[in-house]
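[job 0412] stage=fold_complex status=start
inputs:
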Amino acid sequence: MVTPSSRCFEDVAVGEPLPTLDIEITMTSLVMYAGATWDFHRYHYDAAFVSEHGLRSPFMDGQMVGALLARQLMQWGGPDAFVRRLGYRLRAMVYAGERILLSGEVAGTTIESGRPLALCTLNVVKADGTDVVREAAAAVELARR
Amino acid sequence: MSSRITDELKAWIGREVTYAAPEELGRAAIRYFALASGDDNPLYHDEAIARQSRHGGIIAPPTLLCETNQFYARPPDGSGYIGHHWELPLQSDRFIRGGNEYEFHQPVRPDDRITVTWRIVDIYERDTRQGGPLVFVVSEARYTNQRGELLAVNRETNIH
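[job 0412] stage=fold_complex status=done
writing structure:
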């Protein structure tokens, strides 16, 4: 059974944009994410410690980008979707107080081992246009009609 | 310029370490991760809605498994960190996350008890104009559940 709000493979068009996410990374978000991942590294909350290491303020764990991209992809695909692959190369650190914008589009579709996949290219940039990731891409398994 | 990759360091390629979680992942851990990611997707917290989906019940957000240090029974180091890392024979005050490639083989359930095996798959060097030679360490983590089913593979590159 296809859940009503799921996106169906047959309805996906190449070039279709994914929903964009505009997110402010605050100290609160860093602390919440660090807690939720059992990551107690002082990089993520201790301003004096990061300053000793020559960095300007506590910064986001690079893999939080992965969590946010997965959120974007699962939101788009609906309750029957499942992310099969996700990859990215990190280009810039994101510091507390910065905004990031996630976007992406469907670059292709394919059937792989019987699974209907949307192949997506993804972008994450800061408000000033700096790339946070490079070569970010995902394969999302979708429901069929 | 001499290479920073010594025979001693190279011998770490292929080295493995396994960690086994002492308990199930748990619904609270799933809801906490979703909350921290600003993710209100009902698949992660609403059993009634999740049951109607093809997943048949609450699942974890895809990358939770690859992110959490919940499985590692290590005391915090001087930086507060409790997660997996390699004690490489490498002089470096640098540690930069290069990127991740995740493969998700099946959704993770609240009652899954996770075992993860980390392995070093490659260590190589690249010269850079500004920072001198950088050492790239590629590791692969394989996550399985209590039935030995493969859940995910996480290949990550870190730069020293």
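[job 0412] summary: Chain A touches chain B at residues 1, 3, 6, 23, 29, 32-33, 35-43, 46, 49, 61-64, 66-68, 70-71, 74-75, 79-80, 82-90, 133, 135, 143 (CB under 8 Å).
[job 0412] exit 0
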